[in-house]
Amino acid sequence: MLIRHQQDKKTNITMPPKGKAKGPAKRKLAEEFPAGEVLTDTAKKRWKLGPPIGQGGFGLLYLANEDPSEAVGTSAPYVIKVEPSDNGPLFSELKFYMRAAKSDLIQSWIKSHKLKYLGVPKYWGSGLHEKEGKRYRFMVMDRFGTDLQKIFEQHDKRFSRKLVLQLGLRLLDILEYIHEHEYVHADIKASNLLLSYKNPNQVYLVDYGLAYRYSPEGVLKEYKEDPKRCHDGTIEFTSIDAHKGVSPSRRADLEILGYCMIQWLCGRLPWEDKLQDPLYVRDSKIKCRDNISEFILKCFSSENKPDEMVKFMEEVKLLGYTDKPTYQKLRSILQAGLKSIGATDDDKLDFSVSVNGSDPSSVKKTAKRKKVEVNGESDETDNAPKRKRTPKKKAPKAVQKKASPKKASPKKASPKKASPKKASPKKASPKKLLVEMGTQTSPPLALKKGRGRPKKKV
Fold it and tell me: Any idea which residues carry the catalytic annotation?
């Protein structure tokens, strides 16, 4: 499902051309429509709403059918996003979809570039809907499955190296397409990457609420810093340009992609300890850009650093603000990374590897921590119930039985001064024996040699 459970540290979200930008807190959330509500798009096509399945930005998401005469079931292939008409995010997103995500455009690109699929959601329709005197904007989209952020967290915040490189290749396809259609995304991250509803080996980049038309009618926007737009996007991934208030660009999209891939591999970016301080994050990224090799070493052990990520970030670093990226060269870098680990891009996204194999140091730490936890549980078990059953507990009986003739020795007699009759294995159960021995001072000291802490309780 195309679901957004929370806002992801976005600031200064793009608004409609007219009017002043408003802060996210002032935006209204669409009221919930009853299942069965019918919406008519600008092409006069009617869409039937099913139950709401979640929240997207400041709108609600509903399952939908294109046949109003049928009930909307759980397998409905479409999702309709609805927002109050005066909200900005859906307006901006809608402009992108109408210009660059029509089905025929996407299919033509797939064919001309010999791709198996392209991870850009298709636009199926949109319009305005009035209810009880209020106006709502809506857009019809493909339905998707879960997002990669949920999967990432379920797998201890690690993706395998092969998986990350494959995701990078798929995203290069997506970014090249949207860049060639005059837009940049500006908010690439795992929570905006959704698996196909029908094919879990296909991933789609969604949420174009921050999408920016960097080249309207082929005219490139110029580099210009705007203090009012500083730190736009999601703080941990956004570009250095965005930290300075510069409008999104193609190189910024690729920089964001690089941060995402590195985080997916190592689990945490160096500046994630102070995300509440955007200036610290900005300065950290600038230092990392100035010395990319050192940046990578902060994330990986020296013998296991992914060389392809150094090369990828170095290539992005060379791009000017208005430069067109060399997408094929970037693909070659990631493909070389796959080859270096003996893998190929087999079009299968394997999420079963929970810890990144390219960083054994983190694997060792995890294994050691788990071992300690297991040992701790074992100790707790031995501390009480197992005293009655563990073979080591029976050792004192044998010692007492064989040591009875040596009572003359003062030092060795202390653990054996317990009544021999009571220590007889035939006349006393292990439980009773321990209880009786507990009245003496010396036997527990003898037992302590075998079990440690439990003897204090006895």
Answer: 187
